[in-house]
Automatic annotation (TrEMBL):
Keywords: Disulfide bond, Immunoglobulin domain, Signal. SUPFAM superfamilies: Immunoglobulin. It comes from Ceutorhynchus assimilis. Residues 87-171 form the Ig-like domain. Pfam families: I-set. This is Ig-like domain-containing protein.
Length: 172
């Protein structure tokens, strides 16, 4: 198993075809991998730092889109991991700001939630630039476990938050 992962790593790093494979085989030795140090493979890698990498925008249009002061941005939301009891209520919350006021759309497992037997969305506004949205599923079933997202968008930007949920069984 370790050999397969190692081979895939070599092909990915080197970006070579099978004919060029032999010229790339010495690369991991230069960056600290291979040999008896297999357990310490990550030590010599280039991206072992915990400092986030800031990717520069490729053009000025990207800067004006992603860093627009009027763009939609979620300023408050529910916690990422949520465990619910079967038959009880699942509730997620998102608050977004932007000018014009953003719209909030809810998704489950990448599919927009607009029709669900027990699904309700409550929205209210504050001022000209803020919207609050609360999504509820009551009562929750096993099928409601999954990956939820709230997406805020206006004409300047899109922002989203993700939530993972799973059910808990109550044992007596």
């Amino acid at each position: 198993m370790r050999g397969r992962k190692f081979t895939v790593f070599l092909l990915f790093v080197c970006g070579v075809t099978i004919l060029q494979f032999s010229t790339c085989i010495s690369l991991p030795a230069k960056i600290g991998g291979g040999g008896k140090a297999g357990a310490k493979f990550g030590k010599g890698r280039l991206y072992s730092s915990r400092i986030p990498i800031k990717i520069q925008h490729r053009n000025s249009q990207s800067v004006s889109y992603y860093e627009n002061k009027d763009g939609a941005r979620i300023v408050k939301s529910s916690h990422f991991d949520y465990e619910y009891m079967l038959g009880r209520k699942i509730t997620f919350f998102c608050m977004a700001q932007g000018m014009p006021r953003p719209e909030i759309t809810w998704f489950k497992d990448g599919i927009e939630l607009y029709h669900h037997k027990y699904f309700q969305v409550h929205e209210w506004t504050e001022g000209n630039d803020t919207i609050k949205s609360k999504m509820e599923i009551d009562p929750a079933t096993q099928k409601d476990a999954g990956f939820y997202e709230c997406q805020a968008n206006n004409k300047y930007a899109i922002d989203y938050r993700a939530f993972r949920t799973d059910y808990a069984m109550l044992t007596y």
